[in-house]
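Researcher: Please translate sequence to structure tokens.
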Amino acid sequence: MVSLISGLLISVFLTACTRNAATATPGDTGSPASPSDQVSSQESDWSAVEKLEVKAKAMIKLDGCSASGDCASSPVGRKACGSPRYYLTYCSKTTDTASLRAKLEEVIKAETAYNQKYNVISTCEMRLAPEVEVSGGKCRAK
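Model: Translation complete:
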């Protein structure tokens, strides 16, 4: 009996943590879209967020710093509850920090719009920036 209840609770939790498509999207004309249209649109919208994220990751440089104080981290994305999904670590001496932050801001805006459009729910744990250090000539999170 306990395992049945545990299984049910886990199932409910996992269902609540997934991206959910809304029944209506901004700009709807009132005509119902088929479920497959909503899924493909949602997948396409998430793919756009991921493409921005890949561009941001391509901008980072890990090497070139000799002191841990030269390493930095920046938040990536925006969970529905407001915290970043994770942080990118990089060498601030060799990474174009201004361009990286601008690109990461695009990711945040795109993911925030996605979350609102599809009524996404998420876990609400707060992700804090990691401590960073130089190890083996490269910046990394501790």
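Researcher: Any highlights?
Model: The beta strands are 71-76, 86-91, 132-135, 138-141.
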